[in-house]
Every structure is written in structure tokens, then in C-alpha cells.
Write a structure and sequence with these properties.
The protein has 329 residues and is α/β, with parallel strands linked by helices. It has helices at residues 3-29, 43-58, 81-90, 101-110, 150-161, 177-189, 205-215, 227-244, 269-284, 306-311, 318-323; strands spanning 32-38, 67-73, 95-99, 116-120, 140-142, 167-172, 196-201, 222-225, 248-250, 261-267, 300-305, 326-328. The chain is 44% helix and 19% strand.
Length: 329
């Protein structure tokens, strides 16, 4: 090919590809909108959302520049979730990020076309949010909170720290299918540790206050509090635990320094939120939720609140302290 033909070919190729390259750049440059739906955003959830936003920035998505985030918080009122999910659909956001099972259910009912990324959910398969972890299908994908035996291990650590523990109260949301599946699984393994799990189904603050008031006549050895429950009923739980001097076992390290927290064991929730941002990035760049397998936790942490243990008069076994990923002095 002579020089003149090479020049004509180059000019023709440039004319052909330039509009497509420009279009691709414009697609990435135009501001996308992300919907964020939560049941209640307490301090720990806010910290996790910060981890989500930071990971988005690392991936090139900056609020106010090329993305905007529409936050919707039901303030603990489950009946508002459908309305808020509907608002996000009306805004025609590019993707909806949900926190826990009820917000995901509301978003899924509101749209079958807008991609939904679960930042954290106990059991998205069991709750009917996705078909399977490997092939979620539909418009929902994201992160599953649980890995096998996580809650059992948490109880084992509690038993090691408090060998005399025989009765643990667990507050559950009967409308949260993922949480109920966790509760059922815990009921099966607890007898092996000589522990009785008393589940208290709660749908409102008033119901919880009534149940905890009744529990004052026979306080449990510990409370096992899951992060969604704590986000919704922190004030009531702290008041009861403080007044009755009952230690709390949490399922996430982000709550290990909360009042009356004795220890926590579970997935690093902030890590899951960061991974949720990766799902969002892939979707904004053209991936389909149905093609993105649901991921499970890869990072677990045991955090011991030694300061709280001393306050409860508990001597923490040295081997447990060595096993801990973090100790709060």
C-alpha cells in the first residue's frame, strides 16, 4: 500500500471510529443516578455507605461529577419502603442499591427492569430475591451476608467467653425472610452448645419495649443482636441491656464498640458495601445483573470488647484474645 492509500485509509478509519469512541466517552461521562434504599440509616450504616462511596470514587465514579446518589431512608417504617422504592423508579435511576432483605423486596416489587444491587442480605436465595447464587437471573444481584456456620461460630465464641451462658434472646423481624432463615438455623445448632435461643418476633418499637419489659423478670444471659435489628431499635436495646446489665453479641465488627457489646463475629460489612460498589460499576458500564453471580463474604472478624468484659466481671480466656482480630481495650 503506497503512502497516499495509507493516508486515505487512516482518514477513513478515523472518520468511522471517532464518533463511536466519542459516544462511549460521553456515555461514561454523563451523570448517572444511583438509588440507595435503606430501612434505617444509623451511624454504623452511614459508615458502611461511606465505604461504598469511597470504592465508587476509586473506580472513577464521583458524586456531583459523573454520578448522583438518591438516598431514601424509611426511618424504620417498613410500610414506607414500597413508596420510597416507587420514588426511585419514577426518577428512572440507573441502578438501585439496597440494604437488607425488606428494602430489596420493595425494590424488586417496584421494578423488573432497573438493576438492583444488594449491598447486604442474609440469604437472597432463601428470601426469593434471586434464583441462585451462581445464576441470579432477573434484575437482582449483589452480596449475601452469610457463609456457612457464621452464627454458630459466634455462639461458640460467646460460650467460650461466658461458659455459664444457657439462655440467649434473639430479636427477629418476622417479615424479613432472610433473618428468619438465620433464626431457624441458629435454633438447630444452639442445643449442641447447651444454649437455649429465645426468639422474639418484633414489628415495631412498641412491641419491642413490651417484650423487653416482660424479660426484666427473667433476664437472659446475653442478647444476640443482628445488625438490621440494631439499626432499627438501637435505643430500646441499649436501654434494656444497660438497665439489666446484659451483654450483647453482635454479628458485625462495626458494632463491637457499641454500649454493652461483649464481642462480635461475622462478615466485615464495610467490605461488602465496597464490593457492592464494584457491582454498580460493572452495571453502569453495561453488565447485566443476571450475568453477575451473587458473592458471599470472604473476610470475617472476631472483635472482643475487653473493656466491656471487665465491666461485666468476665475474664476473657487468653486463647480467645489471641484468636481475636481486634481487641477493644
Amino acid at each position: 500500500m503506497n503512502t497516499r492509500r495509507k493516508l486515505l485509509f487512516a482518514l477513513g478509519a478515523s472518520a468511522f471510529f471517532a464518533p463511536r469512541i466519542l459516544f462511549g466517552q460521553q456515555e461514561l461521562a454523563r451523570r448517572r443516578r444511583i438509588g440507595f434504599l435503606t430501612r434505617e440509616t444509623d451511624a454504623s450504616v452511614s459508615t458502611q455507605i461511606d465505604a461504598f462511596r469511597q470504592r465508587l470514587r476509586d473506580l472513577g465514579w464521583v458524586e456531583g461529577k459523573n454520578i448522583g446518589i438518591e438516598y431514601r431512608d424509611a426511618s424504620g417504617q417498613l410500610d414506607r419502603l414500597r413508596v420510597l422504592a416507587g420514588e426511585l423508579v419514577t426518577l428512572n435511576v440507573d441502578v438501585i442499591v439496597t440494604v437488607n432483605t425488606p428494602p430489596t423486596q420493595a425494590a424488586k416489587e417496584a421494578t423488573s427492569s432497573i438493576p438492583i444491587v444488594i449491598a447486604v442480605s442474609a440469604d437472597p436465595v432463601g428470601a426469593g430475591l434471586v434464583r441462585s447464587l451462581g445464576k441470579p437471573g432477573g434484575n437482582v444481584t449483589g452480596l449475601s451476608l452469610l457463609a456457612p456456620d457464621t452464627d454458630q461460630k459466634a455462639l461458640e465464641f460467646l460460650k467460650q467467653m461466658q461458659p455459664k451462658t444457657t439462655r440467649v434472646v434473639m430479636i427477629v423481624d418476622p417479615k424479613n425472610q432472610g433473618m428468619m432463615l438465620r433464626s431457624d438455623a441458629i435454633q438447630i445448632v444452639a442445643p449442641k452448645l447447651a444454649i437455649e435461643i429465645e426468639s422474639i418476633p418484633i414489628l415495631s418499637s412498641g412491641e419491642l419495649v413490651e417484650a423487653l419489659t416482660a424479660a426484666t423478670t427473667n433476664p437472659p444471659d446475653s442478647l444476640f443482636v443482628l445488625s438490621p435489628i440494631y439499626a432499627a431499635y438501637r435505643m430500646e436495646i441499649v436501654e434494656f441491656a444497660t438497665r439489666m446489665k446484659v451483654p450483647i453479641l453482635f454479628d458485625t465488627s462495626g458494632l463491637a464498640s457499641e454500649p454493652n457489646a461483649l464481642l462480635s463475629y461475622g462478615a466485615d460489612i464495610s467490605d461488602l458495601f465496597g464490593r457492592a460498589a464494584t457491582f454498580v460499576d460493572k452495571i453502569l458500564r453495561g453488565a447485566k445483573p443476571a450475568d453477575l453471580p451473587v458473592e458471599q463474604p470472604t473476610k470475617f472478624e472476631l472483635v472482643i470488647n475487653l473493656k466491656a468484659a471487665r465491666g461485666f466481671g468476665i475474664d476473657v480466656p487468653p486463647m480467645l484474645l489471641v484468636r481475636a482480630d481486634r481487641v477493644i481495650e
